[in-house]
Amino acid sequence: MPNLIEITEFSAPELDVYARLSEVQLRSRQDPSQALFIAESPLVIGRALDAGCVPVSALMDGSHVSAAAREILARLGADVPVFTAEDAVLTQLTGFHLTRGMLCAMRRPALPEAAALCRDARRVVVLENVMNPTNLGAIFRSAAALNMDAVLLTEAGSDPLYRRAVRVSMGTVFQIPWTYLPDGWPEPSMGWLRAQGFRTVAMALRDDSVPLNDPRLLAEERLAIVLGTEGDGLAQATIDACDYTVRIPMSHGVDSLNVAAASAVAFYQLGLQ
């Protein structure tokens, strides 16, 4: 049976994780063993559980328990406290309407080593300082859906386990492996990618770029597709260091796509089996 606990005191410290801690505080760099993230909706929570993430507590609208929520409650078991309240109370507590009915605080999983993650990969995504969690979540969803094997990130980018990123990804951050690049960027990590057997593809606007459907790209056994931050795109040093510079053909005077939209187009073309 689930361990249901009705909320009566907003100040209860057990609720800090949902109402009063920032994303940075949840991440708790000072004590990685206590670092948390928030999964929202039964679908996302289920995918996190499938990936082996450990639940700490849950918060839900007790007046409406869907079939999906009942399944999650059964998986959480009796040892995980599940705090419940009416929707109006939850809105006051969390600051937003809990549209999908359930939140779950979970331990952040240990990340794999980059070398192990890339060992059997054909297509990997490299994200250079992508800052917007919405874009990040959308990129992960496209990467999981369109035959990418892994995602590698620079340290300066947003966190894939930020609540918004997890939500927008529909939980695919738990389905496609990811980690941070092992060293500085673009070097020595660019050299490290080449040592793993990858040819690098910079998605950038340059006159000397090759078209996305260039047959040389599909012929490459291993590709690392490099996408840059919103607005500025990839750094010039990164573009110069890549083996290919690739442009998505545009029409109607449009010069470029949002990084999340561009990622879906690139992954579809370059991930063809």
UniProtKB/TrEMBL annotation:
Alphabetic keyword roster: Methyltransferase, Transferase
Is Electron transport tagged as a keyword?
no
**GO BP annotations listed:** methylation
Q: Which GO terms describe its molecular function?
A: methyltransferase activity
InterPro entries documented for this protein = Alpha/beta_knot_MTases (IPR029028), Ribosomal_eL30-like_sf (IPR029064), rRNA_Methyltransferase (IPR051259), SpoU_MeTrfase (IPR001537), tRNA_m1G_MTases_N (IPR029026)
Annotated signal sequence is none
Pfam families to which the protein is assigned, alphabetical = SpoU_methylase
Q: Which residues form the tRNA/rRNA methyltransferase SpoU type domain?
A: 124-268
Please give the superkingdom of this protein's source. Bacteria
**The protein's name:** RNA methyltransferase
Lineage of the organism: Bacteria, Bacillati, Bacillota, Clostridia, Eubacteriales
